[in-house]
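Aim 2, interim progress: modelling of the 2-acetamido-2-deoxy-beta-D-glucopyranose-bound target.
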Amino acid sequence: MKSFTIAATTLLSLSAAVLGRPADSPAEVWAPHITSPTAETVWTIRQKYNVTWDTSNPPKVTNPFGLVVLRSGGDTQWNHMLAYGFKILDGSVQVTAPDVNGGDYSVVLMGDSNNWSPDFSIVSSASNSI
Ligand SMILES: *[C@@H]1O[C@H](CO)[C@@H](O)[C@H](O)[C@H]1NC(C)=O
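Predicted structure of the complex, ligand included:
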């Protein structure tokens, strides 16, 4: 019984070493808080904006590169990939508002984990915005 326990413990610490994290702690998921756009944001199509997020207290990031994709009605709009190949720890990336029908959208930040902004508006011309 004792030798079984030792064997099991050894196996656990071995797999922990292989996986790079303690076997008994849940996988660390980092969902950086998107600080822009917010619910009050209005983007005008074809204009440039910065998507920003909070990079304080990042875990050991396994995938350092991020992706920003448009999201609408709960669906990720893969045909509107706004930015990719930037470093997730940069905390911001400049994007061009996609040429879409006006409405409510959000952006998904993908990297070490996925996170999305609140819904905000995209309008077709500056005259439609406040
Ligand atoms: C985005 O941020 C960069 C770096 O702070 C800045 O140089 C650039 O002007 C910003 N772009 C917009 C559209 O605000």
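The chain has a mean pLDDT of 78. The first helix runs from residue 2 to 19.
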